[in-house]
């Protein structure tokens, strides 16, 4: 596979992981106690939206680890460009 194809699929994975992080973060924020989104506490200490709150936390943690690994891989694949840009900026 060419480097351009690898970068394309890596960018797609980064985008999907970022969307997943945003969604899981929003769900965790909106169902957390005291968030002001209709949950006022009471008998249930952990509301649920599709999954329990703990599962959303685990999904968010997993996606964050995957996202960081993909970003490191992305930087490694573009290291020549990053180094050239640093040299260019430092020369000015």
Explain this structure to me?
The structure is a single chain. This protein has 92 residues and is mostly helical. It has one domain (3-91). The chain has helices at 3-31, 53-77, 79-91; strands at 48-49, 51-52. It has a two-stranded antiparallel ribbon with strand order 1-2. The protein is elongated and about 55 Å long. Residues 9-79 form the Flavinylation-associated cytochrome domain.
Would you spell out the secondary-structure blueprint of this structure?
Blueprint: H1 3-31, E1 48-49, E2 51-52, H2 53-77, H3 79-91
Antiparallel strand pairs: 1-2
Pfam families: DUF4405
Transmembrane segments: 7-31, 62-82
Keywords: Membrane, Transmembrane, Transmembrane helix
Short overview:
It holds the Pfam family DUF4405. With 92 residues, the protein is mostly helical. The chain has three helices and two strands.
Output the keywords:
single chain; 92 residues; 3 helices; 2 strands; DUF4405; Flavinylation-associated cytochrome domain-containing protein
Number of domains: 1
Note the beta-strand portion: under 5%
Determine Rg (CA atoms, Å): 19 Å
| Global mean pLDDT | 83
Q: Distance between the terminal alpha carbons, to the nearest Å?
A: 37 Å
- Number of helical segments? 3
Strand order of the largest sheet: 1-2
One letter per element, helices H and strands E, the order comes to: HEEHH
Q: What composes the largest sheet?
A: 2 strands, antiparallel
Number of DSSP-assigned strands: 2
Please estimate the helix content: over 70%
- Uncertain runs with pLDDT below 50, 5 residues or more? 38-44
Class based on secondary structure composition and strand pairing: mainly alpha
Which outline best applies?
elongated
Transmembrane segments: 7-31, 62-82
Organism: Thermacetogenium phaeum
Pfam families: DUF4405
Domain Flavinylation-associated cytochrome: 9-79
């Amino acid at each position: 596979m060419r480097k351009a194809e690898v970068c394309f699929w890596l960018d797609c994975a980064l985008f999907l992981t970022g969307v997943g992080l945003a969604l899981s973060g929003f769900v965790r924020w909106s169902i957390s106690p005291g968030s002001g989104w209709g949950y006022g506490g009471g008998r249930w200490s952990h509301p649920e939206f599709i999954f329990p709150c703990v599962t959303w936390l685990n999904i968010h943690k997993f996606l964050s680890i995957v996202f960081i690994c993909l970003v490191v891989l992305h930087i490694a694949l573009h290291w020549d460009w990053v180094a050239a840009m640093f040299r260019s900026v430092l020369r000015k």
